[in-house]
Design goal:
Length: 204
């Protein structure tokens, strides 16, 4: 029987460790997840984990990066369903906060993530998110769909608002009720970006 190429084996090993760790982090949480348990369930050794991810913390970072990529794909699809660019942007922001009540995202990304990895504002994934938001706001501004804002500054402010709204929901004892309040506030915040109607518009 022909052996698999080394590159293919590396990809498979990483995928097995990620899947096993993701299941453990999502069900029992980071603190109670045993490295021996999820390496064993993946049919691998601790040595494989250390080689590919460094340690348990590195594995959590990789799992969060994987989930973040999936969240981004979902948000792109939400945006694509909108009737115009502005509505797509609003729907995307709201959908991001709504994900905070999903058990896996809530536990791994919003509860254990900040507890283990620190402030989400400093995560590498946050920088790519801000760049994407900056590009969208630039297009909306240039089209006249929103006020003449400074795109990067506004992207950072909105990103912070969305992140903290999600953390509020995730840590709430009444997440559904908190989510409704957060979504209402986010919509009001975004409405503030819309151009003010001119005097002529008011009297027309």
């Amino acid at each position: 029987m022909a052996h698999k190429p080394r590159s293919e084996m590396i990809v498979e090993t990483r995928a097995k460790l990620l899947a096993s760790a993701r299941h453990a982090f999502g069900t029992v949480g980071y603190a109670d997840a045993s490295m021996d348990d999820f390496t064993s369930s993946a049919g691998l050794t601790r040595g494989a984990l250390y080689h590919h991810f460094g340690d348990k913390k590195g594995l959590l970072e990789a799992v969060i990066k994987q989930i973040d990529a999936e969240m981004n794909d979902r948000l792109i699809k939400v945006n694509e369903k909108a009737t115009n660019r502005w509505q797509g942007y609003v729907d995307e922001c709201v959908a991001y906060v709504e994900m905070a009540i999903e058990p896996e995202i809530q536990r791994i990304v919003l509860l254990d993530g900040p507890a283990v990895l620190g402030d989400p504002a400093n995560w590498p994934t946050t920088n790519s998110c801000i760049r994407s938001m900056t590009d969208s706001l630039t297009q909306l501004r240039d089209e006249g769909a929103i006020r003449d804002v400074e795109p990067e500054a506004m992207a950072r402010i909105l990103n912070g608002a969305l992140t903290h709204a999600s953390l509020w929901v995730a840590n709430s004892t009444e997440p559904e009720a908190t989510l409704r309040k957060a979504v209402k506030a986010i919509r009001q915040l975004l409405d503030g970006l819309l151009p003010k109607p001119s005097a002529l518009d008011k009297h027309s």
